[in-house]
Amino acid sequence: MGERWDRARVLALAPDASSLRAAQPLASGPSWLLTGTADGIAGKAADGAPDEAAGASALWGECVGSAATPYRTVVDLSGPAYRCSCPSRKFPCKHALALLLLWSDGVVAVGGGPPEWVRDWLASREAAAASAKDPQTPADPAAALRRAEQREARVAAGLTELDRWLCDQVRQGLAASQRSGYRHWDDIAARMVDAQASGLAERLRALAAVRYSGSGWETRLLEEYALLRLLATAGREQAALPRPLRDTVRSRVGFTVRQADVLAGATPVRDRWHVLAVRDLDQDRIRTRRVWLRGRDSGRPALILSFAALGQSLDDSLTVGTATDADLAFYPAAVPLRALVAARRHTCPAGPPPGSTIAGLLTGYAAALGQDPWLDTWPVVLQATPARAPVPGLHDAVGDAIPLHPGAGGCWPLFALSGGHPLTVAGEWTPRGLWPLTAWDEGGRVVPL
Question: What is the pTM of this model?
Answer without folding.
Answer: 0.78
